Amino acid sequence: MGCQDVLTRKTGVIVGDDVLKLFNYAQEHNFAIPAINVTSSSTVVAALEAARDQKAPVILQMSQGGAAYFAGKGVANGKQEASIAGGIAGAHYIRAVAPAYGIPVILHTDHCAKKLLPWLDGLLDADEAYFKKEGEPLFSSHMIDLSEEEVEYNINTTAAYLKRVAPMKQWLEMEIGITGGEEDGVNNEDVDNNSLYTQPEDILAIYKALSPISPFFSIAAGFGNVHGVYKPGNVKLHPELLGKHQKYVKDAIGAKEDKPVFLVFHGGSGSAKKEFTDAISYGVVKVNLDTDLQYAYLTGIRDYVLNKKDYLLKQVGNPDGEDKPNKKYFDPRVWVREGEKTMSARLTEGLIDFNTSNQFPVAFFVFVKWPEMVTSFRLGDGGRRKTVAGYWRTTHWTDRPRNDVLSGGRWESGLLPEMAHDNSNDSHSVTPKPGQRPFYCSTTQHYSLKSRQPQFRIFAPLLRVAAVPEERGFIFAHHRIAMAESEGGGVPQGQKQGWSSFIKSMANFSGDLSSLTAPPFILSSTSLTEFSSYWAEHPSIFVAPAAEKDPQKRALLVLKWFLSTLKQQYASRSDKYGNEKKPLNPFLGELFLGKWVDAAGTTELISEQVSHHPPVTAYSIHNKEKGVHLQGYNAQKASFARTINVKQIGHAVFSIPAYDETYLITLPNLHIEGLIFGAPFVELNDKTYITSSSGFTAKIDYSGRGWVSGKKNSFTATLYPTGKESSVLYTITGQWNKTFEVREGKKGAVIDNYDAETSAPTSLTIAPLEDQDPMESRRAWAKVAAGIASGDMDATGAEKSKIENEQRALRAKEKEEGSEWVRRYFTRVESDKLLEALAPKIGLLVEDDKTGGIWRFDEKKAAAEEGKKN
To answer: What is the mean pLDDT of residues 467-477?
Structure first.
């Protein structure tokens, strides 16, 4: 079930009743749709890509200035002619491309103040002309913003416009209560703060004036909103006021529903996730997201230009040679695309935060050609029978024997106007096209094309499936694909039902997965604070760079050390337990302290949970004798889109004081493979960088097994002078969980190798439980760990709840006292010179708003803690 089930038009620009149905569905299912201000075809496709990949509906909107930009800054706009022409052009462009992305799109215009009403009038003229020709308006909806005017004028004028658009069933959004800040030339930074909060009497007056005209309206009520992003603490949002507005209207009109009003959240950029979720719970169905996306779009282009500046200074001539052309670097399609990528990435976060992700579960298509590619597939849900319905063109199959098409199973023909899917209330009418014959099959069996050459299996155990043959083969439409020989094979027999339920809950889940409860066999008794120890379980490799005098070779040793940590960080739990485990979520102030003592001397570890919302772990690993220090912090944001995806936010800093040298290290994103089979393991995604103050950069590209080929946990790393990526000094290739080789240049001689399977880690020494601080992980979680080990989930839950309740009480006390938890080893800093110098070289977006700040090890605090022990 998804919002596509309530829509008449499934993809492309939706209008009229479909807009109302979508907003109703959003309220019922507790999500909001992000509204993205688009100014060009580039920003349009960036937004559509993110929504498509997250299987989510989206609102694309143009402001008056954005519409004028669509027409071109060189077009006169004294009478709104550029804004009208650009708005119409942008609308037609969006209508043309949106269906290709397979998601529903609401086409909207943003703030229209009193002085801009001629712009709205021009667009409505275009809507009415389009309606006369096509039976629907050009735009799905418009916004009229008379919040700076008297309330009576605001309501009466809005009502007049609603009467105009009502025959077209066009949606109208209005604003009551000023949104502060500055946007698109409208500056409300100096308004009285009281004007930012709408009164419930005004909401009721609007509802009474507009609802008799048309149900197609929404209200942007002020609850402290501002446009733009400001320093934390400067903006005081009170989403709870929206709940009071809903109750006030409900009581006044005697409504049955708790949320009779469709509400809109303006000024979403810079807001906390809780503010979004609270507002959505009170009936917000649309959230405007602009400033954050503008900045995100810039970062991709900015970082590309900074990284490639030596290739952009002239058309011919770069660090690779004076006669080398630079066209492939300055082609706008290259650097504009970088902006699209970073904008899409930021919107993806919004879709997850607003719970919009996976609300439109678009089918995933695999085209199987005859006879080049062969497949076998299995469909079903725990043995329940399903029916797969579709049509095939007789011209392609009548000349082939049945057994040549399918081996095993049963095909039946006969006109079936309606095909039922499993035992739910879900049914689909299918009508054959000319030249097609109907077919259906029971899906509890196996079918294969040319089964003597099986390649991979399409497995859809949870969701509705349709198989539609087309051209010279089949298209199988479904929602999940997985490599498989034995679905659920890694799940203990007694827990297979629980695992199936867990998989189902993830498939239907949107947002951050940290709140999901995992089955007992996949729970870990280890807290995330302990994961910091994986950075230095081979102390001799960790300290080796300090002994090398050549800066180029030092950079290589740092790269080798980093690669040597990956197996411990991302595969050691699979090796130990047979599958990846879900760790315990640390509490604020949780500590994990220890040390390694071996031939490299003493290497000390300090790990502290410095933030709980968002969850952030900071760490310091120091070998004072050898003069090597690693510090950093990281947060994880997990989501589900075909599998569990984890974005790691933060970075690490490796320092060698003797050479006044530092290395900035980015963290890999990852996803979880093997979920269907109950044997999950980590696979790393994309790429990471290590860049040094001495002028060297390493780039690590991660790749996995793929569907039918490749080795899991594969990577290629190159080391090069910063800014000269093509001038490769060393190349390292292999599998980070097994072995890898180091070569000179791109394909030179092998000069070193590493075997992760034979390199035994050094044991970490920690204090006995009775000697540990009450905040240390092993002591704090001891009873929870015992419950997990014994499989007693009741005891595990009870002990876990005790810790969580204690933490809630502490947070409540701090809030009452106006105090903040004091970190014992780390301090939040406003800025960092290292980041300012090195982050732009590798395109690192610091995102300190998602980690509660920039965290640095505080030697004074550490010394004070050591003094307490002595």
So the answer is: 32
